[in-house]
Amino acid sequence: MTEATGPERVRSAEQIELSVREASAGVAPRNDSGRWAAKVDRLDVVRRDGVRGTNVAGRRLTGPVQGFGKMWQKTYRLAAGAAVSPEEAITTWKAHFPEFWPAGNRFAGALTGISPGDVALLDLAIGGGVKLSTGVFVLYADEESFTLMTPQGHMFAGWITFSAEGGPDGTVVQAQVLMRANDPLYELGMTFGGHRKEDVFWTGTLTALGRYLGAADLTVTTRTVCVDSSRQWRKTSNIWHNSMVRSVLQTLAAPVTALRRRRG
Amino acid sequence: MDGPMVTMGVRHLGGQVAVVDIKGEVTAACEPVLMSAYEEAGGLGTSRLVLNFAGLEYMNSGGIGMIVTLLVRANRQRQQLAAYGLSDHYREIFELTRLDEAITIYDDEASALVGAAT
Predict the structure, then answer these.
(1) Would the CB atoms of A19 and B72 count as touching at under 8 Å?
(2) Chain B within 8 Å of A12 (Cβ-Cβ)?
(3) Which of A229, A247, B91, B115 sits 20 to 30 Å CA-CA off B51?
């Protein structure tokens, strides 16, 4: 099921009033220390087996403010059922995160799982036998959610939040992407099939997670909202870091690079 | 799901400046409250919106996402967004997520208002 919404979303005053709960209700405030990553200016990378590991070291993080294309919020949800709590769902998701990815894509994270400040290396299948090498940074993690942020050169600038919440029919798991394509080339790609590919990717991921958690219904609902339909033309130069272009060049240059290493 | 544990009061200070006093927890759940405050603050020809985070108790990544959404709406109306009252912890988070490149951060309200006048 897919729902698309335009840039403006307006709620009624009644909805707003109903959703407000005074901070003075007597509930102790939560503490987020240790849940956010410490500040980094540029990413450090630990070499990991099974991925090329390029296009990440030394890169800066990019949020939606730094991206080029239209800003999108895409939400994918699946009902995991009443047998699993939100905390259990997130613990499982963190522990087995790479296993739920569609075939052909590699996520090489820390052996300890997903913790704030970790950098994971990715090899993503982009067709023609070429792998797009990039990474993600664990920005935030708590018992019911975790968020990954992208580096320069990634397809999109933004973050993906994975979360779980309890509801009347049990736990619902969700992946929510807030992003802009990082540069004009990616924006073109997103417009001509990239968004559909991304939908397939996250739908596949949620389906695999739901199957693992024992969900009875593996239907994933998708909601796409264009938060900002304008493009940030001043960010055109982001194309310099484009990891897809660099990955293609790295693939083409691989035999020469290997020969040079052997000669030494 | 629980409702948001936050209140957001709006003060119009004249000179097309409005301050939003944020008290409590900023998470994705408080989007209606923030957008309501924005509607109230963004009227009357406001050209500069100042977010007062001195009462901020907790913020998760959903809260940061919501501030990005607010930023987009403000930019669309050609309004500037500024912030003050952030603890060192939350200032680091603004820097980590690079929100500080779009939202000017000041130490206190006086500085934010002087910034608004320049």
Answers:
(1) no
(2) no
(3) A229
List CB contacts (< 8 A) between B60 and chain A.
Answer: 32, 35, 140, 142, 145
In angstroms, rounded to a whole number, what is the distance separating the alpha carbons of residues A158 and A119? 15
A43 phi, psi to nearest 5 deg: -85, 135
Q: pLDDT (tens digit, 9 = 90+) per residue, A99-137?
A: 999 988 899 988 777 999 999 999 988 777 788 999 999
pLDDT at A113: 79
Contact B99 A65 (CB under 8 A): yes
Domain ranges of chain A: 35-251
CATH number assigned to the domain covering B6-117? 3.30.750.24
Q: Give the CATH fold of the A35-251 domain.
A: Alpha-D-Glucose-1,6-Bisphosphate; Chain A, domain 4 (3.30.530)
To which H or E segment does residue A105 belong?
A: none
The domain spans of chain B are 6-117
Please, are residues B59 and B90 in contact by the beta-carbon 8 Å criterion? Answer: yes
How wide is the angle at C-alpha A200 spanned by C-alphas A196 and A205, nearest 5°? Answer: 150
Taking CB atoms and an 8 Å limit, are B58 and A31 in contact across chains?
A: yes
Cβ atoms A174, A202 nearer than 8 A: no
The predicted complex's ipTM stands at 0.89
Q: In chain B, which residues have their Cβ closer than 8 Å to the Cβ of A171?
A: none
Nearest to B20 by CA among B73, B82, B103: B82
